[in-house]
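Summary for the funding panel

The consortium committed to producing paired sequence-structure records for every protein in the target list. Below we show the first two records in order, beginning with the earlier of the two.
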Amino acid sequence: MPGDPPPMAAHADRESLEISDDYSDDGFPPSPPGYSYRLNRYTRPLIDYVRNEWQTSAKYTSLSVSPDGSDSPRWVQMFMSMVTAPRFRRYAIIYLVLLVSCLAGWMFVLSPRLEEHEALLHSLDPSIKDDVGGWFGTNALPRFDNITQLRDLDASLLPAVKAQKDGQPSSRRLIFIGDVHGCKDELELLLDEVSFDHERDHLIFAGDMINKGPDSLGVVDLARKYNASCVRGNHEDRVLLLRHDMETSNTLSPDSDGGISPELFFGLKKKERALARQLSNEQVQWLDACPVILNVGQIPEMGQVVVVHGGLVPGVELDKQDPSSVMNMLTIDLDTHVPSSTRQGTKWTKLFNKHQSLLYSSLKGSVPARKSQVMTVIYGHDSKNSLSIKTYTKGLDSGCVKGGKLAAMVVEDGGKQSIIQVRCRDHRKE
C-alpha cells in the first residue's frame, strides 16, 4: 500500500541502521529512498584486512618479533632491520671496496711516493754532506785525453726570446734528436716529419748516433752535411777509443785481429771493431769534436739548457762532472750522489728535478726571472724508460734500433716545445 516501507527494508538486518533522508550528523548527503548503509559495529583498521607479503616476510616480522620469540630491545630491532635490508648489503659491499682501494692506494702509490720525497729532500740537505764523507763531484776530476768536456753552442742558433705572431713561422728552431744508432732511413723520415729547413733549423744529437744500426756512416755524413751539433755518447766513446788504439797499434787492417790481445779491444763485438775501421779520418775527427756536455744557453721557460747523453749530478759544476758518468749514468746513490750505469738505485732524473725545483722555489721574491737560474737537461741513453719528458729533464731515447720510435723535441721562438716521433724497424734481426 502507498506509504508502506519497501519489502527490503522490512527484512533489513537487525545489525544495520536505516539512514533517513535528512542529512546525518556527520554531514553525509541523504541516501536514496529505500537504501540503507550497513555499518559493522566491530569495525577494525583496514590494514588488518590486507593480505600481503609484509605480514609473512622475515625482514618485516623481525621488527616486532625476535628470532627466539622474546621481545628484543628497540635498538636491537633497529640494527637487525638495517642489516637485513638489501640496500644495506649493497652499501656495505661498496664501502668495503672503497676501503680496500684506499688502503691499496696508500700502500702501493701514496706511501712510496711520500717516502721517496722524504729521501730526496734528505739527500739534498747540506747538513748531511759531512756525515757521508762528502758528495760526488766536490773536487775537480782529472781530464781525459782526446775528449772535449764542455762546449757552448753558438748563440746565433738559438730561437728568438719572444714567440712570433699566430700564423707566422719561428725565425729559428732547435731540433733535439734522441739515439739514432745508425738508423739513417728513420732519421730522414723524422726530418721530413718535422719539416726540417736547413736555413732556419739547427740539429742537435743527444749521443749514440752510431753502432747497432745498419748505416752508422750515413748518419754521421748526414749530420756533417747539415752542420749539426752533437754530444759524445757511450757508443761513440767505445768505438772512438777502439779506433785510436787501432791507430796506435797499427791494427786498422781488417786482417790484423789475429794475434792481438782481446783486452786491446775492450771485449767489443766484431761488428764494433769493423765499424771502428770503416770510419774515415774526417768522420773520426768530427765525432771526436762532439763534447761530453753541450751548453746550449738560455731558452725561455727552460732556463739554461744543457745536452748530455746519460745524465748530470745535481749541484756539480759542468766542468767538474765526470765524463764517463755523464755518458753512462742511469741511477744515483742518494747518500753520496755517486752515479751508476746500473739500475740499482734512484733515477738520476728524480734527484735532478727535485734539486732544480727546490732551487726555483728558493729564488721566489729575490730574483726577477727565476727560470733563468734553473737548468734543463736534454738526454738520451735510457731506452727502457722511452720518452720521458719532465719539468727539468727531457729523455728522448725511444729505442729506435729495437723497433721503437725515433724522437725529436722541437724548440721554437719563445721556448715553445713539441715532441715528434716516427716508428722504426727492428734492426736487431738484420
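The next record, for a separate protein in the list, is shown here:
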Amino acid sequence: MTATDRALELVRVAAEAASDKLAQEIIAYDVSEQLVITEAFVLCSAPNDRQVRAIVDEVEDQLRLQAGAKPVRREGERDGRWVLLDYADIVVHIQHEEERGYYGLERLWKDCPEIDLPEGARGAQRTPLDEF
C-alpha cells in the first residue's frame, strides 16, 4: 500500500506552504506501510520559535484554502519549538532546528520511501558549514 493521491496532494501543499515561509530541510515520507493512523509525514524546521509559528500558520492556511483540509489535532504550539499538525491523512512536523537535530525523526523513518517534492518545496538545505 502506498499513500493515496489525496495524501500526496496534502503533502505537496504543506511542503510548498512551508517553503514559502523559508522552512529548512523539508522532507516527506510515505509511512502508509508502517502506520495505520496516517499515510505520510512532512518534516521541516526553522531557526527560531517565531519562524516555526509563521510556518505553522501558512501550512494551516494553505491546506484549508487549497485542499479544504483542517487539522484534527494540533500539538506543541504553546512553546513554539515543535508543532505537530495532524490531518489524519498526513502529519506535519514543524520543529525548531535544535529539536529536529535532537529527536532525529529522519533516522526513525529512513526505511520508509521518501516522497518527491516539487523543486521549490524543499526549503533551504543546511550544509556542514552551517554547523559552525
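Regarding this second record: The helical segments are 5-20, 49-67, 97-103, 105-109. The first helix runs from residue 5 to 20.
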